[in-house]
Write a structure and sequence with these properties.
This protein has 595 residues and is α/β, with parallel strands linked by helices. Helix content is 32%, strand content 25%. It is built from 16 helices and 25 strands. The strands form three sheets. Strands 17, 18, 19, 20, 21, 22, 23, 24 and 25 form a nine-stranded mixed sheet that branches. Helix 1 (18-27) packs parallel to helix 3 (47-57). The protein is elongated. It starts with 6 loop residues before the first strand and ends with a helix.
């Protein structure tokens, strides 16, 4: 195992002033930073003062960047570029940084001549060496003539100067689907710097894709593990540094973003075998879900089977589904999730290494000790093993015949827009839940982004409303719900409605379209219509589901039936459900006014 890789983050990743960014990077545990030139230019302090601040914070300055449009230019442009370089070298000496990033040119002055580019980069490296500095040459994916790392390496090799090497940026390489295996042919000592960024797969030009949509490792679709392994196999031993341009990150709390960034880097190190940490636990199932408030679970067929010995918490069960009702806290929200894991102590150690330390919890004598960690949205995740925690509850009666619910299928948590990618990485890195594809759909009150994460016996869906402007907004902006599973959704809906459960009504228009769209037998469509059961299918199976009205400020329940190997969550029906919930709330308001 390579001991303690040096970790760094570019200041461009974070929001705020340079002072804010440096402090956040240090608090998150980074060893060093890349100083982005614009951050320096906007700062009132001298480079020497910034150097002292970094030293006081325990940060090294590992790279100064960027130096643009230098190479393969006519003599008069070269002279001007060398004047710029001498100024930058003076700044770097004050900062105490020994490497400058030179991006491949996008200038209209550039000439398509590798020999000329090599000659001028050799001259630049000679000037840099006089100051004890190095030049790291990077191929921009949109460079005018040099836009691939192998091309950049050919020029560096041709220049043949000990102070000239390459900078490898995962985005510039993987966005163009260049094969990173050839990196192993570059001598490790000639790879001067490594910049890491992930990204979602987007059908757009590479420049805006890079400038606005990069993500931290593990949040996108790139194979960062394979890429980084190729770089390390080449013999690179420099910093593992993050360079992420992202509009959300650059407007978010820099402390929170820096922690998210460090978690991503630790998760990447773990995938490479560079981190001494227990393996991701992969929960085997839901031990329980906790709801704050007083939802009417009896009408859904649940029985109150226990009361906590020391806390105002009740245990409600039906089949294998266990719901805790907590009388304290913010009413009408999901307060905690209990996940069954093989080794809670090891899972807790992993969570702490990945910057999700245990939360303080009060435990009475002889009560089960459950480790709690906080998800990015504030939901408590409790790590359980077996059913020892059930001993904390005084029996309150035997379970009565239920309504057909057999267990918890999944839990849906709405994330603040700024934390959507952070949440996916948290569940992936800390708990071993693998993310599915991100889906976006038009809802009645705006565009919604959603993604499922699953593994072992646990499924979660993470939703986030995209940027909303003005005061026009839904009454429930961040809903949450628990989805229970059953063996027969139509029969369960019939039973629950007979018990008096308030289930949302789905418009006839939906079923008319369903019949035309799917070709289901007319009798089946009418059966679904009568019970307001929604339907979806894919190549592996079918999905039937229905919903209750709100059971509090923002919590409701779903009941689902999976047929075959269907693995989705009925996302296609989400706008229908949202409109139906809005209609139900409007009707409830009318009822209340009449009452």
């Amino acid at each position: 195992m390579r001991p303690d890789p040096h970790t760094a983050i570019a200041t461009v990743c974070l929001s705020g002033t340079l002072d804010d960014k440096l402090a956040a990077a240090a608090r998150a545990g980074f060893d060093g930073v890349e100083v982005f030139e614009n951050d320096l230019l906007a700062d009132r302090r001298s480079p020497a003062e910034i150097r002292r601040q970094c030293a006081d914070l325990g940060l090294t300055i590992d790279l100064y960047q960027p130096f643009r449009d230098f190479e393969a230019v006519p003599p008069d442009v070269l002279a001007a570029n060398l004047r710029r370089a001498e100024h930058k070298f003076g700044v770097m000496a004050e900062l105490g940084v020994d490497t400058v990033l030179v991006c491949s040119s996008v200038s209209p002055d550039a000439i398509d001549d590798d020999d000329l580019a090599a000659e001028q980069l050799h001259l630049l490296a000679t000037r840099a060496a006089e100051h004890g500095l190095r030049v790291a040459y990077e191929a921009l994916a949109w460079g005018r003539y040099v836009h691939g790392y192998e091309h950049a390496w050919r020029i560096v090799r041709r220049a043949a100067h000990p102070s000239l090497g390459v900078c490898l940026d995962s985005f510039h390489i993987l966005s163009k689907e260049d094969d990173p295996r050839a990196i192993r042919a570059i001598p490790g000592e000639k790879i001067f710097f490594l910049q890491l960024a992930d990204a979602p797969t987007l059908p757009m030009d590479v420049l805006p894709w890079s400038r606005h949509h990069r993500l931290f490792p593990g949040q996108g679709d790139f194979d960062l593990t394979g890429f980084t392994r190729a770089v390390l196999d080449a013999g690179y031993r420099g910093p593992l540094s993050l360079e992420v341009f992202n509009d959300v990150f650059r407007q978010s709390d820099p402390d929170r973003t820096a922690v998210d960034a460090m978690r991503s880097l630790k998760n990447l190190q773990d995938s490479l075998g560079l981190l001494d940490v227990p393996a991701a636990p992969v929960p085997t199932g839901y031990a329980f879900a906790e709801v704050v408030g007083e939802p009417d679970l009896a009408v859904l067929g649940f029985t109150r089977t226990g009361t906590h010995r020391t806390k105002p918490v009740e245990l409600w069960t039906q089949g294998e589904a266990r719901v805790l009702v907590n009388a304290t806290g913010e009413p009408g929200e999901i307060g905690a999730l209990g996940l069954a894991v093989p080794d809670p102590a090891a899972a807790a150690r992993r969570a702490e290494v990945l910057l999700a330390p245990p939360l303080p919890r009060s435990t009475g004598p002889s009560e089960a000790t459950l480790t709690a960690i906080a998800a990015p949205d504030g939901t408590q995740v409790l790590l359980c093993t077996g059913e020892d925690w059930l001993a904390d509850f005084v029996p309150a009666g035997e379970p009565a015949p239920g309504a057909g619910i057999t267990g918890i299928d999944h839990v849906a948590l709405t994330q603040p827009f700024d934390n959507f990618d952070e949440a996916g990485l948290f569940y992936r890195s800390v708990l071993g839940l693998e993310p599915g594809a991100t889906a976006e759909f038009a809802a009645p009150f705006g565009l919604v982004r959603g993604r499922g994460v699953s593994g072992g016996g646990v499924r979660l869906t993470l939703d986030a409303a995209l940027v909303r402007r003005g005061g026009w907004a839904p009454a429930v902006e961040e809903p949450q719900h628990i989805a229970f599973r059953c063996d027969d959704a139509v029969a369960c809906a019939r039973e629950l409605r007979g018990r008096g459960a308030r289930l949302v009504r789905i418009p006839d228009n939906y079923y008319d379209d369903l019949a035309a769209r799917t070709g289901l037998p007319p009798g089946r469509v009418e059966e679904l219509r009568e019970r307001s059961v929604l339907y979806d299918r894919d190549e592996a199976g079918e999905y039937l589901h229905f919903y209750t009205e709100l059971a509090g400020a923002r919590v409701f329940f779903e009941v689902v039936q999976r047929i075959g190997d269907y693995r989705g969550f009925g996302v296609v029906n989400a706008p229908i459900r949202m409109a139906a919930h809005h209609d139900a709330r409007t009707r409830a308001e009318v009822r209340d006014r009449r009452a």
